[in-house]
Amino acid sequence: MCAALGHNHPRIVQALQESAETLIHSHMTMFNDREIILASRLAEITPDGLNRSMFLGSGSDSNEAAMAIAKRYTGGYEVASPVVSFHGMTDAARAVTFSGWRQGYGPFAPGNYPIIAPYRYRCSFCQDKGACDYTCLDTSFELLDAQADGRMAAVITEPLFSAGGVIEPPPGWLQELKLRCEWRGMLLILDEAQTGLAKLGSMWAFEQEGVVPDIFTISKHFGGGIAISATITTDEIEEKAVETGLVVAHSHSNDPLTCNAAIASLDIILEESLVDVADRIGRYWQGHLLRLKERHELVGDVRGRGLLQGIEFVTNRETREPAYEQGQRIGRMLLENGLIVSIRRQGSVLRLVPPFTTTEDQMDLAAEILDAAIGAVT
Ligand SMILES: Cc1ncc(COP(=O)(O)O)c(C=O)c1O
């Protein structure tokens, strides 16, 4: 997922060489030209008004920064996130990660709450209905309102849940979530680590939902393989957070080397029209996945779009009993046959994230390997 642009892209290598010959590191309290150029380049591709970026090193710390900003801006400290979310493994990011990797790290700071996931395939409110009627959100906010210790700071969510099982919220869910945040003076933070920078066939996943977040974060392939992330927000939010004394920085947050790699990755994303590439690959690949669903009863659901898609295995399509053990066996067979996928939800979901460099021949071969493995297990 971090190598989505391909390993060692020549433009990234060139950017690293330039920085190696000029300046690798610069003190975090001083601006360097690479950082300023990167911020202005990002502002050209973010929605109007979301002009302010801060650079960090990982997805986790970009989310921590986003939550710190929301706390400073609202004066609240409580944050909610859907139960299928993944936001990272630093303490504050893990505290709003509910899809796993949570138990056994001692108590988290107070004020982190799960909300019901918009998981239509398994939703007890709406899986039998024609559409989601947002009962999940109303119920979640009723519980949040009852628990909150005052004005809550934010909801943080992925626009399409990746690690939690490639779960696509139903149409309108993100807009309804934003409304409920606005009514309460809470901010909406979108974690676009897995979905942003062209991955889903648009520059940002939130564009496809008709929602503009208050803060959003990017990481993964942002540096073309080099570790850099960003937290992006509006002038108003940034100014108030700074006035109230916000400090978020790490020794290597804004190094010219990492910022230069990110400038190069933006060049690649724009010049190689990766939005269109993701759309094309996504449609072709989804065709394969839908054919697999026709051929194999074990495939209960095909989800996702662009470069982030998944299939869910069930032992029975009517009862939707998750096929954990079969999925784990399939995952092992795929690896033995040269296809790297990630196994989610204890085996019942395969997450498939091809890079932008994937060819149709490779997708045909991947589909053959998948077909054989599913066939062998059933
Ligand atoms: C949606 C999302 N947010 C945050 C993270 C954490 O990023 P990092 O591992 O760079 O801290 C990940 C990592 O997989 C992720 O998928």
UniProtKB/TrEMBL annotation:
GO molecular function, one term: transaminase activity
InterPro entries cross-referenced by the UniProt entry: Aminotrans_3, PyrdxlP-dep_Trfase, PyrdxlP-dep_Trfase_major, PyrdxlP-dep_Trfase_small
GO cellular component labels: mitochondrion
Domain of life from the UniProt record: Eukaryota
Family the UniProt entry places it in: Belongs to the class-III pyridoxal-phosphate-dependent aminotransferase family.
Pfam families membership: Aminotran_3 (PF00202)
Keywords: Pyridoxal phosphate
Name assigned to this protein: 2,2-dialkylglycine decarboxylase
Organism from which the protein derives: Geodia barretti (Barrett's horny sponge)
